[in-house]
Write a structure and sequence with these properties.
About 50% of the residues lie in helices and about 10% in strands. By secondary structure, the protein is an alpha/beta fold. Helix 3 packs parallel to helix 12, helix 7 crosses helix 9 and helix 7 runs antiparallel to helix 11. It is flat, with a radius of gyration of 20 Å. About 25% of the residues are buried.
Length: about 290
């Protein structure tokens, strides 16, 4: 059985690229993002960041490559702003410099939703009879995120190897549940699945260059990226992993109904301060002035 979302008509790239023509008269600034499935909560974020800019609609362009290409075609247009995820681009030297192209400072927009206050509001919204002060005292965001990050380090380094050296293998698109068990509020590696993934990577590396090995590439990844502090983990680790795992822990600890991830993201976005996006706000305001 297909979902309501799956039954909706799909817009092709040509339609997306020209859709803004119909909204020029309504938008002060037209914002372009990567993914259609993020349109609603990204719209919420941009309205929050730029309350004095009239935004009627934003425009997903179906992937980073499309956003970057369109930004290069509209370099001098100060009424068009293009926003993309950081991903591993800074680490792999893939940043494209263009005045109207703005990279998030963290891996993805989900990384900027990691705020304690908005999670408290979400918990209370799900269970209004819970005591706010008790939630505030029991929800140790830093410790929880540190433990999540610790369980993800090996997997994230494997994904970095794949993107850097053999990028046609699947990486971030793979769900963390494939590699991690969740038991009693903790995440532990599924060793057979990790080993299988490592073998797939190792075989691919040997095909590329017989001198390559999984261990040498893992050591290289450690030189490319540091994950030694929580701030660095929040900056460089995939936000979809961090946020989904945090969601699992919150649902377990507070007895919440498991919500759809997209719904969860939208709900918490409505209460975020987005202080972590202050530099982005400043850079965009300076550009459009």
């Amino acid at each position: 059985m297909i979902t309501v979302e799956e039954s909706m008509p799909v817009k092709n790239d040509n339609y997306r690229a020209g859709e803004d023509i119909f909204y020029v008269q309504f938008n002060d600034i037209s914002f372009y993002i990567e993914d259609e499935d993020q349109e609603n909560f990204f719209f919420c974020i941009l309205k929050n960041l730029f309350p004095t800019i009239h935004i009627e609609k934003i425009f997903p362009l179906n992937g980073k490559e499309n956003v970057v290409r369109e930004s290069l075609l509209n370099t001098d247009n100060k009424e068009k702003v293009y926003i993309v995820d950081k991903d591993f681009d800074d680490i792999l030297d893939k940043i494209v410099e263009n005045p109207n192209l703005f990279y998030l400072e963290r891996y993805s927009i989900e990384n900027h939703l990691l705020e304690k206050d908005t999670l408290i509001e979400y918990i209370i919204g799900e269970k209004p009879k819970l005591n706010r002060n008790e939630i505030e005292a029991s929800l140790d965001m830093e410790a929880t995120l540190f433990n999540i990050s610790k369980s993800l380090k090996n997997l994230v380094r494997l994904h970095l190897i794949v993107q850097n050296t053999c990028s046609h293998l699947k990486n971030i698109s793979l769900n963390h549940e494939r590699f991690l068990n969740f038991n009693n509020g903790q995440f532990d590696e599924k060793e057979p699945q990790i080993a299988s993934y490592e073998n797939d990577i190792d075989r691919e590396l040997k095909l590329i260059d017989g001198r390559y090995s999984i261990n040498s590439q893992r050591n290289k990844s450690k030189r490319l990226i540091s994950l030694e502090t929580l701030d660095l983990c929040i900056k460089h680790m995939p936000g979809k992993y961090l946020l989904k795992m945090l969601k699992q822990i919150i649902e377990s600890d507070y007895g919440l109904v498991s919500r759809n991830m997209d719904s969860f993201c939208y709900r918490i976005a409505t209460n975020c301060s987005f202080n972590s996006l202050e530099n982005l706000r400043t850079e965009i305001n300076n550009f459009v002035e």
